[in-house]
Amino acid sequence: MFFFFLFWLVFLIFFFFVFLSIFVLFGFLDCSWLGGFIFFDSFNYVFLSFLSVFVLGFICLSELVSGLIFYSCLIILFSVFFFYSGSLVVFYIFYELTMIPVLFCLLGFGRQVEKISACYYLIFYTLFFGMPYLFVYSRVFCFFDFVYYDFFMSFELVFFLGMCFLVKFPVYFLHVWLPKVHVESPTSTSMILAGVMLKLGGVGFYRISGSLNNFSLELFFFLSLVSMVFCSFICIVQSDCKSLAAYSSVCHMGFVLLSEVSMLYYGKSMSLVMMLSHGYTSVLMFYFIGEFYHIADSRLVYYLRGYFNISVLFSLFFGLTMVSNFGFPVSISFFSEYLMLNWIGSIFYFGIFFLFVYYLASFYYSIYVLVCFLIGGKVSFIYDGRSIVCLPMIFMAYNFFWFVFII
């Protein structure tokens, strides 16, 4: 009876994965379904939906708890519908719906009592900063579809609409919920949260930024630069690996915000590339940290030592992940960050100083974590086969498609 149930569960998960894959590929046809309820208006959202389905497949291969797989499927389904929403109301509905499976994963599968406090933070930040969106929408907008969403608004309106999505970036000052939720959630939920749900904030502000003009961008520049620099130094002093990876996500998404408000065509494209590279890299980071936690029963950086002596393959993949995290050449994150470095150096010379400090700090904490993990005495045994599932994610983080832009 157990094997029969397991067979049907695997079959249903496989069917759902295939259905989502086919549905995402329909985005290349540039069509609209269900009377505009599902609207394929940009290849950017197709690529992000492909990232979501890719992460779902990775979780299905690496996760053993069926409940977490089920809730992960729900989150990915809501996220794909969010990326393909043709209405501002449906856009907001799916944005908030993704929070419910995360709460179930956090409360049902979290191990410590602090998970209740993390849920309070998640609900408060998401709903409190989502209220201005509904208020402004009900007072100002008299239409519903993104087809007609092509006009300039005042800075105040953009700010209140953007606050709803800046929480899920998250930018500094609105980031407090993210480390708490990451620390208390299981590994697969952290992978979904970093790889997919942070992209919801990026895509939401990507939509809203279409109404920005070249004025009143100083606040967003300030938020993005502060997010990158401050959180890099916070990462240096972290002792918990999951908290370090969470603050690292805040750093990278600050760079995404800087790209989205750059008012350049390639800046918008580079924000997409940054979100893709951060999605693949952060998923791998949380996967490896979860594996180390299951082996050593600790997430402290100082206790996770000596893995190079017991598994060279595992250490190689983790090394490639951390190297990709600080934008090493050949990774796609390097390509996007390099172009934005040229842009900010051409219009805001003092911004080079902020980016230099950000790169220096991110390089330091990434190399520090890598050295701590690899060097030391033998601690335990790792099965090399578990790391093989990381190979497609490593390929996507270092894929060769970005060479086409140079050629």
UniProtKB/TrEMBL annotation:
<dbReference type="InterPro" id="IPR003918">
    <property type="entry name" value="NADH_UbQ_OxRdtase"/>
</dbReference>
<feature type="transmembrane region" description="Helical">
    <location>
        <begin position="35"/>
        <end position="61"/>
    </location>
</feature>
<keyword id="KW-0679">Respiratory chain</keyword>
<keyword id="KW-0472">Membrane</keyword>
<protein>
    <recommendedName>
        <fullName>NADH-ubiquinone oxidoreductase chain 4</fullName>
        <ecNumber>7.1.1.2</ecNumber>
    </recommendedName>
</protein>
<comment type="similarity">
    <text>Belongs to the complex I subunit 4 family.</text>
</comment>
<keyword id="KW-0496">Mitochondrion</keyword>
<dbReference type="GO" id="GO:0042773">
    <property type="term" value="P:ATP synthesis coupled electron transport"/>
</dbReference>
<keyword id="KW-1278">Translocase</keyword>
<keyword id="KW-0249">Electron transport</keyword>
<feature type="transmembrane region" description="Helical">
    <location>
        <begin position="7"/>
        <end position="29"/>
    </location>
</feature>
<keyword id="KW-0812">Transmembrane</keyword>
<feature type="transmembrane region" description="Helical">
    <location>
        <begin position="348"/>
        <end position="376"/>
    </location>
</feature>
<feature type="transmembrane region" description="Helical">
    <location>
        <begin position="157"/>
        <end position="178"/>
    </location>
</feature>
<feature type="transmembrane region" description="Helical">
    <location>
        <begin position="244"/>
        <end position="266"/>
    </location>
</feature>
<dbReference type="GO" id="GO:0048039">
    <property type="term" value="F:ubiquinone binding"/>
</dbReference>
<feature type="transmembrane region" description="Helical">
    <location>
        <begin position="68"/>
        <end position="84"/>
    </location>
</feature>
<dbReference type="GO" id="GO:0015990">
    <property type="term" value="P:electron transport coupled proton transport"/>
</dbReference>
<feature type="transmembrane region" description="Helical">
    <location>
        <begin position="307"/>
        <end position="328"/>
    </location>
</feature>
<dbReference type="GO" id="GO:0008137">
    <property type="term" value="F:NADH dehydrogenase (ubiquinone) activity"/>
</dbReference>
<feature type="transmembrane region" description="Helical">
    <location>
        <begin position="118"/>
        <end position="137"/>
    </location>
</feature>
<keyword id="KW-0830">Ubiquinone</keyword>
<feature type="transmembrane region" description="Helical">
    <location>
        <begin position="388"/>
        <end position="406"/>
    </location>
</feature>
<feature type="transmembrane region" description="Helical">
    <location>
        <begin position="272"/>
        <end position="295"/>
    </location>
</feature>
<feature type="transmembrane region" description="Helical">
    <location>
        <begin position="90"/>
        <end position="109"/>
    </location>
</feature>
<feature type="domain" description="NADH:quinone oxidoreductase/Mrp antiporter transmembrane">
    <location>
        <begin position="85"/>
        <end position="348"/>
    </location>
</feature>
<keyword id="KW-1133">Transmembrane helix</keyword>
<keyword id="KW-0520">NAD</keyword>
<dbReference type="InterPro" id="IPR001750">
    <property type="entry name" value="ND/Mrp_TM"/>
</dbReference>
<comment type="function">
    <text>Core subunit of the mitochondrial membrane respiratory chain NADH dehydrogenase (Complex I) which catalyzes electron transfer from NADH through the respiratory chain, using ubiquinone as an electron acceptor. Essential for the catalytic activity and assembly of complex I.</text>
</comment>
<feature type="transmembrane region" description="Helical">
    <location>
        <begin position="190"/>
        <end position="209"/>
    </location>
</feature>
<dbReference type="Pfam" id="PF00361">
    <property type="entry name" value="Proton_antipo_M"/>
</dbReference>
<comment type="function">
    <text>Core subunit of the mitochondrial membrane respiratory chain NADH dehydrogenase (Complex I) that is believed to belong to the minimal assembly required for catalysis. Complex I functions in the transfer of electrons from NADH to the respiratory chain. The immediate electron acceptor for the enzyme is believed to be ubiquinone.</text>
</comment>
<dbReference type="GO" id="GO:0003954">
    <property type="term" value="F:NADH dehydrogenase activity"/>
</dbReference>
<feature type="transmembrane region" description="Helical">
    <location>
        <begin position="215"/>
        <end position="237"/>
    </location>
</feature>
<dbReference type="GO" id="GO:0031966">
    <property type="term" value="C:mitochondrial membrane"/>
</dbReference>
<keyword id="KW-0813">Transport</keyword>
